[in-house]
């Protein structure tokens, strides 16, 4: 595995993991929102999509690790926002 590829994977994994942990902390420890288990894991689904899309090229101009990381965080924000409304 190339170092550049490993760094890209780490960026997306850290974003998805961080969003998942933030949702779990807001739900369980802080009690701010009430989120069940499946929606809590939603950012990790984005990371899985990133991993499975890395089978070869060519990749589009929007298919960058930074964008996948942003989508993982955005999914986390949407889960928290949806849980706070309901």
TrEMBL record:
Residue stretches making up the DUF8049 domain: 1-84
Transmembrane stretches, start-end: 12-30, 65-85
Superkingdom field: Archaea
Pfam family, one: DUF8049
Keyword list, A-Z: Membrane, Transmembrane, Transmembrane helix
InterPro entries found in the cross-reference section: DUF8049
Protein name stated in the entry: DUF8049 domain-containing protein
